[in-house]
Amino acid sequence: MKRIILVAMLISVTLTFASAQTESKKTSDLSKIEQQILQLEKEGREAAVKNDVEANNRLLADNWMNTNANGTVTTKAKLMELIKSGLFKISSIEDDDVMVRIYGDSAVVTGRATSKRIGQDGAVVTGQVRFTRVYAKIDGRWQVIAAQSTPIK
User: Fold this and answer.
1) Which helix (H) or strand (E) covers residue 63, if one does?
2) Pairing mode, if any, of strands 60-67 and 141-151?
3) Which long-range contacts (CB under 8 A, 24 or more apart) does 123-131 make?
4) Whole-prediction pTM
5) Of 42, 59, 83, 121, which sits with the fewest C-beta atoms within 10 Å of its C-beta?
């Protein structure tokens, strides 16, 4: 009887240890994905400030849509037009309070952004928004598929 109890305890400890290793691996994998997404967020900010068409094209899915702070919608094609025209000039973007949540091959990023842009009259316009960006893993790489921002008054 003692032998059976001892074997049962050993099996239980082994299964618990194996489960802990699996959970540790999952946490490590999620952390790696979170770091990848945060890097893409950084690249996205840099691309916006530089009006980098190539980087924006790589980072945004073909069917990307942004719901702007004023309620209008911008498609990827429209954004590319704006960038190429030079009418859309962001001088800086700083994000904080950023959280990344991973859901398999999707990720949701939320945070607060403070940006400065040059208005059509040449004046510097500063704004702060709460944002949400949704990423999906498409053909083995992460891309933004949707975004939305809400102004902070």
Assistant:
1) strand 60-67
2) parallel
3) 124/91, 127/69, 127/151, 128/152, 129/69, 131/95
4) 0.79
5) 121
